[in-house]
Amino acid sequence: MVNVLEKQVSVGLFGLGNVGTGIVKALDGHHDLIRKRSGFNVRLKTICVKNLKKAREVNTAKYRVTANSGHILDDPEISVVIEAMGGIEPARAFIMEALEKGKHVVTANKALISKHGQELFELAARNGVNLAFEASVCGSIPIIKSIRESFVANSISSIYGIVNGTTNFILTRMVNDGKSYESALEEAQQRGFAEADPSFDVGGKDAAQKIAILSMLAFNTPVDPDTVYTEGIQDLVSEDIKFAQAWGYVIKLIALARKADGEGIDVRVHPMLVPKAHPLANINGELNSVYLIGDLVDGQMFSGKGAGPLPTASAMISDVIDVMKSAALIRNFNSLPLVDINNLEFSYYVRFPVIDQPGVLCRIAKVLATDGVSIAELVQPTGNETVPIIIRTHKAKERAMRHAFDEINRLPIVKKGAVMIRIQE
Ligand SMILES: NC(=O)c1ccc[n+]([C@@H]2O[C@H](COP(=O)([O-])OP(=O)(O)OC[C@H]3O[C@@H](n4cnc5c(N)ncnc54)[C@H](OP(=O)(O)O)[C@@H]3O)[C@@H](O)[C@H]2O)c1
Hints:
By secondary structure, the protein is of the alpha/beta class. Helix content is 35%, strand content 26%. The chain has helices spanning 18-29, 31-38, 70-73, 91-100, 110-126, 143-150, 165-177, 181-190, 199-202, 205-219, 238-246, 309-324, 360-370, 398-410, and strands spanning 7-14, 40-48, 64-66, 78-83, 104-107, 131-132, 156-162, 229-230, 249-259, 265-275, 287-294, 298-305, 345-355, 375-379, 386-393, 396-397, 419-423. The strands form 2 sheets. Strands 7, 8, 9, 10, 11, 12, 13, 14, 15, 16 and 17 form an 11-stranded mixed beta sheet that branches. A 6-stranded parallel beta sheet has the order 3-2-1-4-5-6, with helices on both faces. It starts with 6 loop residues before the first strand and ends with a strand.
């Protein structure tokens, strides 16, 4: 029996890779569930791909599969466009054309939203349509919807967490199984959690794009991901994991955005020593987790799968329903400045590989003292020719600590591979 109140939605999909395939599976497998829950009869009509000859994991016989973008963009029946191609162009051009033609758009494209979000939201608003992007940050975790809807009445003071599954998988293997960085990365690649070229993830760039998007939502301020202070996990070694653990911490790659004291926002990505008792310390494997502090709700934590075809499809189909209900509008941006990390204060974990000879400790301590950095704890395990000196400092200004770190690295007794990791209080 036809439900007269039910609304028909015809969808055009760009991309049939990992995410596009997940969308086809989810829409095929859960069509009736989605219809009953939402009141929208979501029908995938056309799929646009690059290579028509490629074998596909899903049966596409009932859809129009094309390499011509016009078959979606010029089809008046299609009211929602899902972009699951990735990259900046031609995704940006297709999205702009769809918005200009009065179509709602759903995308998982963090690179595009973090770099060109403001321009696209303004275009959507001018054309009276919606642009939704839940899947661009932390896959299935409804963090964007929560900031925009559930916590709309809150002034958010900070939002931080583990937003990259690849690095969390690698760090978990290093902590739980004592693996080296290289062997943990290899396992991540074998299990599909890391790309053949992992640099975008392990270097922190992926997390920087995601925290830029979260900052934009939490503080109404577009943040260019290229201006976010970013460090990755490539320089960590098993020793860092071991000593962090002995001092009661777990190392995590943390993405953070918070209101700074005074004007501005503090947005950054870097490894941190997180106390073992902190909820984020127990988020393991490829999972993501975001911790948000709002003035009315206090701390709230969200955890779950941050990537993968089906979790991503779950978020995108939810967005399809939201854009149809007009629940995905973004407007009114501020322009708060980013604070300079050099003016912030942290305690630090530092490790210097040094030549094992008398007087080394003294020379390092002298540089730290000259820059006003005081030592809270120091360990010097025995070794062969090169030994590590591991130091936990009291709180110091980043500018002073960075200066001391660079000075110490210039000493002839210090070998390559020193690390400096901030400690979460
Ligand atoms: N993978 C995840 O778990 C995940 C999670 C969250 C967000 N995302 C985001 O989702 C997006 C897609 O990622 P993915 O992993 O699915 O990528 P992917 O596997 O590389 O798939 C890309 C798809 O886009 C199609 N495509 C490329 N250029 C095209 C063009 N000019 N016209 C039409 N189609 C074109 C490709 O067509 P052919 O198949 O014909 O080559 C392919 O089907 C990215 O923005 C990514 O950041 C991914």
